[in-house]
Write a structure and sequence with these properties.
It is a single chain. By secondary structure, this protein is mainly α. It has 2 domains: about 160 residues, no CATH class; about 140 residues. The chain is about 70% helix and about 0% strand. It has 14 helices and no strands. The C terminus is likely disordered.
Length: about 425
Amino acid sequence: MITPIPPVDAIPVPAPIWFLKTLLYVTFLIHVIFMNLILGGNLLAAVFAFKGKAKHLAAARRLVVILPYVTAFAILFGVAPLLFVQVLYGPLFYTSAILLGTPFILIIPVLITAYSLMYAMARWWERLGDLRPWLSLVNLFLLGYIGFVWVNIFTLMLEPDRFKDKYLAHPGGWQLNLVDPTVLPRFLHMFLGAIAVTGLYLAIRGARRIRFEPEQGRWQFRSGATWFAGATIVNMVVGLWWLVDLPKDEMTALMGGNMFGSIALGLGLLAGLASLALALLGINSLKPGRYLWGAACALVVTLLCMIVMRDVIRDAALRTYYDVARTATHPQWGAIGLFLVLFAAAIWLSVFMLNVLKKGAPVDNGATRGPGLTDSGVHKASPAESGIRKLLPSDSGPIKAGPSTSGVHRLDDQDDQ
């Protein structure tokens, strides 16, 4: 039998297959969370900016401010899973990337353009005016292009029997895998997931602001929970569409043919329903934080189950051509240990940088750069803002007390003058 894929590299895999797959699941989970915040953040920022009310613009600005940092973390934690995919499925991944050619190479300049635009928007948000929603839509299109190309690559690598004919038909490399019926539902599943993750992030941030800005915080957490719930419900339908369009062998692997795939499907469905129920319970709760954090934990479990299911589908599709479980291994624990140390250092450094951003960075004039990632809405009040007039030496007359000096004051009372 003539194999339709290039021969496997003679160099053994540097760790057991199960260990590399575990690292793939963990690193890809972190990457997916950040990636969803980028894509969904640009969409919701555009929607809120188009609405234009003060509460919408405040929420949009808080999203835009964090996007450059989230993008940096997504890129940082996206390198590791890509390396593990190359180690485990190198001949398939590289061949798919070469067949797509130009669309794949364009990912780099498109990502740089989107990254630069997000920085510009975060820096000059107030000056951009009516351009703000349109620039967010441009970013959404650029990032959507990147996600769509990745979906094409990872679906094409499941069909190695098409490699030769696809190359002979378009040797120039300008092509996509649009004939695969699973491309569209898989992309929409990723896109709706990004909206859900961002909506839940907004809800959690809004719930934390209720103490300082009750009206803004309550609106934000309810709006975010609504976006999360709506996207999750629609995504369940799209997920069913994706499942039905899978070839028989791949669908069977998730429905009894593979123990891990079946467990992941059942647990992922239950966790998704739990996250949806908790978010809906939080919408009308006086203390929504515990419900929203519970929904977040259930959502992380759902994402992890989805990652495991993708891997099960991949192995089921490639069983005839490429059995990764039979790949030769020669553990190099020194190299793996070094990777784990550096990976832990990257996580620690990321947390440290987030803590620095929370405190804000000083500027030349002594003010603070804001609002930062976790602006509480509480600001230092100047004498002018509080209505207290500094007593000068020239004030020789008696101080007149207004009618309200004998009663209880609210902190937000303004001077009548």
